[in-house]
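In the design runs reported in the main text, the only information available to the sequence generator was the tokenized backbone. The following block is the verbatim input for one such run; it is reproduced so that readers can re-run the procedure and compare outputs position by position.
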């Protein structure tokens, strides 16, 4: 088995995932907007996954959720779209010690701009553990390659999808096969705008095939898919949005 870990070990290191930027609002004190960012904290590691779009909104939410920027050690970028990389430079300026994991297909000019800040940057093409049982997947998909984050928790694997361009069903399949275990929960952007109920139900089928027990879609999932998932997953549809905190 890849990346083997006992349940007892995972239990000793609880994880929280806080949604900082999303199309949907969860907490009244936060502001929603098109884009995605979340903060992952496991023991001594604090990782920001993507940066949302507008600076004033991200910084408002960071304040509202009492996140001290200087505690963020690592920034992971999923893919080069403005609703995910919009605040990378203000974040680096505010936290020059941050380590940045960039996708390998990132535009060269943009990469040069990031590297000009002299932060530690790494380009990753494959699965890699970046904190205790927290993995980046490297880019998946072809048309719009995108990397995700997978966390091993006491409950099982948690997949965080930033935007879901590679196909959320394919991403679940790939992660499950890589770790040789079921995916317990999928959080984030599922990218199913304009999908029919039938197509959305096929996604549900694939999720069930790979053991998914709970879903918390948001960002670019699309309202029709959100509504359909809410109907078909009942209490296993977990409402997400800015300010939502998941604890494992
Ligand atoms: Fe997106």
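Verbatim output:
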């Amino acid at each position: 088995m890849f990346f083997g870990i006992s349940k007892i070990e995972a239990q000793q290191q609880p994880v929280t995932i806080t949604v900082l930027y999303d199309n949907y609002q969860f907490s009244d004190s936060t502001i929603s907007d098109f884009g995605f960012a979340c903060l992952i904290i496991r023991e001594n590691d604090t990782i920001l996954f993507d940066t949302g779009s507008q600076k004033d909104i991200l910084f408002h939410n960071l304040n509202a959720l009492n996140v001290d920027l200087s505690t963020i050690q690592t920034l992971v970028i999923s893919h080069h779209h403005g609703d995910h990389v919009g605040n990378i430079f203000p974040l680096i300026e505010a936290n020059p010690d941050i380590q940045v994991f960039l996708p390998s297909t990132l535009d060269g000019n943009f990469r040069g701009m990031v590297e000009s800040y002299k932060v530690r940057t790494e380009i990753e093409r494959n699965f890699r553990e970046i904190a205790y049982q927290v993995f980046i997947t490297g880019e998946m998909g072809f048309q719009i390659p995108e990397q995700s984050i997978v966390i091993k928790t006491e409950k099982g694997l948690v997949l965080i999808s930033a935007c879901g361009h590679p196909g959320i069903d394919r991403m679940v399949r790939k992660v499950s096969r890589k770790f040789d275990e079921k995916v317990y929960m999928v959080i984030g952007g599922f990218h199913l705008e304009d999908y029919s109920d039938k197509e959305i139900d096929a996604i549900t089928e694939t999720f069930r095939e790979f053991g998914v027990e709970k879903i918390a879609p948001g960002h670019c999932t699309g309202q029709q898919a959100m509504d359909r998932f809410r109907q078909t997953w009942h209490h296993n549809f977990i409402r997400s949005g800015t300010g939502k905190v998941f604890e494992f």
